[in-house]
Design a protein that fits this description.
Elements (H helix, E strand, L loop, with lengths): L3 E2 L7 E2 H10 L2 H10 L14 E3 L3 E3 L13 H5 L9 E6 L6 E6 L5 E10 L5 E8 L4 E6 L9 E8 L2 E6 L13 E8 L11 E7 L2
């Protein structure tokens, strides 16, 4: 028979039985947790760009008057002048974060292209278009009123060649058929000299 001890003045019980009872009550686990002293964890978060763009599409005209009713007065007055460039192309980077829209036009021509956007976020965003336009060219940006409702809207010119706009989130315009685009109108002045001209700029999401 093994050695026995008394517990709180009660009848002596075997030592091995006492140890077994404490272990079953979780005393051993509690002691181990306390000795660890801390809990260590990580929450890796990858944040991707929400504002994306597809290839620019040059258009033959601006459509009906309802489509460009939100356009600046200058565009509305000259909407009938907009025509397809003599030759044109629209390309986009593989990650949909950059584009080029090239065209051949004549002196005095007006041309326009659709800039199809995507808000990959579930929430609406505020975007900013900033362009560097060479002398002799004029640019206007607006959101057309086509049906279904354009997810891009509230386009306001806030600088010589800077526009702010909103872009709704949720539905994917590139797979669901939802419209989500800006219209960019480029005109060549009657006095511009023939040559090569480059419009550069940025399209970015801002806080507000």
């Amino acid at each position: 028979m093994g050695k026995k001890i008394s517990l709180l003045g009660r009848k002596a019980i075997p030592v091995w039985l006492l140890v077994l009872v404490l272990a079953a009550a979780g005393a051993g686990a509690a002691a181990g947790t306390v000795l660890a002293g801390k809990v260590v964890g990580e929450v890796p978060v990858a944040v991707s760009q929400a504002l994306l763009v597809k290839s620019a599409v040059w258009v033959a005209n601006l459509g009906t008057s309802d489509n460009y009713s939100t356009a600046p007065q200058q565009v509305r007055n000259h909407a009938g002048f907009v025509s397809m460039p003599n030759r044109s192309i629209g390309v986009v980077s593989d990650d949909n974060t950059g584009f080029q829209a090239a065209a051949e036009v004549a002196v005095g021509d007006w041309s326009a292209f659709d800039l199809n956007l995507k808000n990959a976020s579930s929430n609406s965003l505020v975007g900013l278009v900033t362009l560097d336009v060479p002398e002799g060219l004029e640019v206007e940006v607006f959101a057309d009123n086509t049906t279904p409702t354009n997810q891009a809207g509230n386009v306001v010119r806030i600088g010589p060649n800077t526009w702010k706009f909103t872009l709704a989130g949720g539905a994917d315009p590139w797979t669901s058929g939802v419209i989500s685009r800006l219209v960019v109108v480029v005109s060549a002045d009657d006095t511009i000299q023939p040559g090569y001209y480059y419009i550069t700029g940025t399209l970015q999401q801002i806080g507000y």
